[in-house]
Design brief:
heterodimer, A: about 700 residues, alpha/beta, Elongation Factor Tu (Ef-tu), domain 3, 4 domains, eight-stranded mixed β-sheet, about 25% strand, elongated, B: about 160 residues, alpha+beta, Jelly Rolls, four-stranded antiparallel β-sheet
């Protein structure tokens, strides 16, 4: 095999020799061109570092001449400059503004298209085939992947493909990638991979690993594909001197690391110091520009929005990189949970270095230093952590990482975003701005009270809606009209179709209800996810509880803004007649004909008995839940007897998009129902 | 005025938060100031603006507190409702006071009633009673203020989720 562009790179005698897998081999510098040719011949698109606009960026490359030969980068907080090297090394730099995530998880991607079905006269969501499937049949070869970036890819794998739900587009691209890694023998001033234990040595997750010297490369295969490729390269066993140079180069690189981060107890430490003065100090410098999240090789938050076209192109759902520094990241119909820069920086750092360990079993930081170099004001996270550590409260325990059980791993995973089409059979107007949609779901659809579904309309959008009940295969969703998607859902009529995926999230602890008094506190639309619980208790308890009514009652305390905003009036009346149920309803604002209670749910609850062994299920606006929890705490109710249902900005419902984070949790996956002691350290805290 | 309470009354008064913390002797003293009272539904109990001369405790039933807004419709606006065990007419604990809201019974009610002046005099004569009563009343007034704040926040508005 001869590279047409590099006729010098003739096959050496070594080609075809077989070496023990994983052996380090020596290859002349010209072998790199051979490698590129081989990869191209196999159909791989080559992507690697190249010089552009005064930076070393990733782009399509064809030959080793496209690499930044003889260049290096000098980095400092808020600073990045290229400099000439004294030698002709092609990988003599550390990292630039780009990372491989832009290829595996593109900044902008179409998830679905809305297509018009002329027979049914309906807009439908295109199937999964529309989802991007890799970069061509041959996939992409990533040239020059550093150990820190390999660690970053492994971290994003955990986010997108290692959980219960698989992102098909990411999965396709990941499977179609060929990784040519490079060991770092020189560290930059902002490098701290040694602290994060991600580098500088490439140890796993590569097809071929290169180590660059002045005259040769060390080559090591890390996979079957890699071995097959190495067998065709002009290689020979590495010399003792080369082996020694690698070891001494890695050791020198470790000593050169310009930054370090003390990771001991870091997750618990950050969450123990959420009110540290350093957050205010860093917020005075931070511009909330989001550069750190864009250059970070592990940041994965994205938004998913319907993009309409004024021309003839169909509307499509697009996902784009989002940043926790953007206002819309933590926003739901009018409420912004992280309104200040301090909240957002704290969210970013506590997520990156702390929450990540609970969510994915690894730190979210690989020590590449990009966020320091590309911060316009030079904020250095290692300095921020050191400042907090210098004057810190004792670490608090965080929830442990819960890997997907291996038994489940053998089963096929659910595909993220795959929806089914459901038909509306009935629409009940509960209040002027709330409707209940009854949907025919496929046979076998099961949910547990408290869980939610994602409802979507092609070309309009998708929203999380809690399941409010089911009867004979008909599943009910109660929708509050607050935005354009919920308005469109509210306007549906029987016979209409919509997209459904789910159920997602945690459920109310129904198994804990027997044999103890149950108090359900609901506010406004918060009764919807609790209606199934009420129904279940109303039915189950008629025979058992009625006999034991003094100790096993069920009480509903329900509040709404005004009488006409009360949901499920017919059922409320039925429940009132049930001997096992005690129903108390109150409104904030009365009307002339209202003779019921006026006041908040806390006003009513305070007048009722609150047994310490009772079970308390609470759902409503967060400020209401906060008032209820404070009241229950005053009444000495143990936190583990209280359950709350939380709401945040849910877009993907699978813990992938990062929008609904609540400290170490994803509301969509770990919630929405939480036992209070799980969230007590955050609940009611501003900025989360 | 009797020095002791019969067991029925003792249990009743002990269960009322307004009297929490009082010893038996003092509880008997204050209990003797109250007389029971039954009122049918839809009766006016207090009228906004009138002298606050009587203190009530609601034992059974439901009472609305309402405010007349000049220029608004025929009805008064109900701002709160009270039920079992609640203090009604705390304004009478202060001298020269008037009712800040009207009170109407929404259900047949059983109440305890005492003269505001008699209770205030008792509090002045025995500061132990006075401190206990005022502290307990402050808890109730504080809770109402707290609840009232929540009620005024429009927490169910779409802007607040």
């Amino acid at each position: 095999m001869v590279d047409p562009k590099h006729p010098d790179s003739k096959q050496s005698d070594a080609i075809g020799q077989s070496f023990k897998p994983g052996t380090r081999l020596s290859m002349p510098r010209t072998g790199l061109a051979t490698l590129f040719t081989l990869l191209s011949a196999e159909g791989f698109r080559l992507v690697g570092p190249t010089l552009r606009n005064g930076a070393i960026v990733f782009d399509d490359i064809a030959t080793p001449a496209d690499l930044p030969v003889g260049w290096t980068d000098k980095q400092s907080p808020g600073g990045y400059r290229l400099e000439k090297r004294a030698d002709q090394r092609a990988f003599g730099f550390v990292v630039g503004p780009h990372s491989w995530k832009q290829y595996l998880f593109p900044p902008k991607e179409t998830l679905y298209q809305a297509t018009f079905d002329p027979v049914a006269q309906l807009w439908r969501q295109s199937g999964n085939a529309a989802v991007g499937s890799g970069n061509g049949a041959g996939g992409t070869a990533f040239i020059g992947v550093r150990a820190c970036d390999l660690a970053a890819i492994r971290i994003q794998d955990r986010v997108f493909i290692d959980g219960k739900y698989v992102d098909p587009a990411y999965d396709n691209r990941r499977k179609a990638s060929f990784i040519v890694a490079v060991n770092c023998l020189e560290a930059g001033d902002l490098c701290f991979c040694d602290s994060m234990e991600t580098g500088p040595e490439v140890t796993t997750g590569y097809d071929i690993c290169l180590t660059e010297f002045d005259d040769t490369f060390l080559v090591q295969a890390g996979s079957g594909r890699g071995e097959a490729m190495v067998a065709q390269l002009p290689v020979q066993p590495a010399s003792q001197a080369e082996q020694k140079d690698l070891a001494s180069g890695l050791a020198r690189c470790r000593r050169q690391m310009g930054r370090q981060l003390d990771t001991e107890d870091l997750p618990g430490l950050l969450f123990a110091n959420l009110d540290h003065a350093q957050w205010d100090r860093v917020a005075q410098r931070c511009l909330a520009c989001g550069n750190c999240t864009m250059v970070c090789p592990t940041c994965f938050c994205y938004s998913a929005d319907e993009v309409a076209d004024l021309g003839e192109d169909p509307a499509q759902r697009e996902r784009r990189w989002d940043s926790c520094f953007s206002q819309q990241h933590s926003q739901i119909h009018g409420a912004t949970f992280q309104p200040t820069i301090k909240d957002r920086y704290r969210q970013w750092l506590t997520h990156k270095l702390a929450s990540w360990t609970s969510q994915f079993g690894t730190s979210g930081c690989v020590g590449c230093g990009r966020c320091i170099a590309w911060c316009p004001v030079g904020i250095d996270l290692t300095e921020e952590v050191a400042a907090i550590k210098a004057d810190a409260e004792t670490p608090v325990p965080l929830p442990a990482y819960q890997p997907v059980p291996t038994a489940q791993a053998a089963e096929p995973f659910a595909t993220l975003f795959a929806t089914i089409e459901a038909t509306v059979t009935e629409v009940v107007a509960e209040t002027p701005d709330v409707v209940t949609l009854s949907l025919v779901m496929p046979r076998g659809y099961q949910y547990r009270p408290g869980q939610f579904n994602m409802l979507s309309l092609p070309g309009i959008g998708e929203v999380p809606i809690s399941v409010s009940g089911d009867r004979n295969g008909i599943v009910e969703h109660t929708v509050h009209r607050v935005g354009n998607v919920s308005a469109a859902l509210s306007a549906l009529r029987p016979g209409a179709t919509l997209g459904v995926r789910g159920p997602y999230g945690s459920a109310w602890p129904l198994a804990q209800t027997p044999g103890r008094p149950v108090t359900i506190v609901a506010g406004g639309i918060g009764l919807a996810p609790l209606r199934s619980v009420m129904r279940s208790l109303a039915e189950q308890d008629r025979t058992t509880v009625a006999r034991n009514i003094d100790s096993q009652w069920v009480r509903l305390v329900y509040g709404a803004r005004e009488p006409e905003a009360l949901l499920f009036n017919r059922e409320l009346a039925l429940w009132r007649q049930n001997a096992a149920l005690r129903v108390a309803v109150t409104v904030d604002h009365s009307t002339a004909d209202w003779t019921g209670n006026v006041g908040t749910v806390t006003t009513l609850l305070r007048r009722k008995e609150m047994p310490v062994d009772g079970l308390y299920l609470v759902c409503g606006p967060e400020v209401m839940m906060l008032a209820v929890v404070r009241l229950l705490q005053t009444a000495q109710i143990p936190p583990e007897n209280i359950y709350l249902s939380m709401e945040r900005n849910m877009k993907c419902a699978a813990g992938h998009c990062g929008r609904c984070q609540y400290g170490p949790y994803f509301i969509c996956k770990d919630g929405p129902v939480f036992r209070y002691d799980q969230v007590a350290f955050l609940f009611g805290r501003r900025g989360f | 005025m009797t020095g002791t309470l019969n067991s029925v009354d003792a249990r009743l008064f002990r269960g009322l938060s307004l009297f929490a913390g009082l010893d038996d002797k003092r509880l008997a003293k204050i209990a003797s100031q109250f007389t029971p009272l039954d009122i049918p539904a839809e009766a006016e109990l207090l009228q906004e603006g009138e002298d606050a001369d009587q203190l009530y405790i609601l034992l059974e039933g439901r009472v609305s507190l309402s405010v007349a807004i000049p220029g608004r419709a025929q009805h008064e606006t109900v701002v709160s409702t009270l039920s079992r065990g609640q203090l009604l007419g705390w304004s009478a604990l202060l001298p020269n006071n008037f009712w800040k809201a009207s009170a109407h019974t929404l259900k047949p009610c059983r109440l305890l009633r005492a003269s505001g002046k008699a209770i205030r005099d008792l509090c002045e004569r025995d500061h132990e009673i006075g401190y206990c009563l005022m502290k307990n009343a402050l808890v109730t007034v504080g809770q109402r203020l707290e609840d009232c704040r929540l009620q005024s926040l429009n927490i169910f508005g779409s802007e607040d989720g």
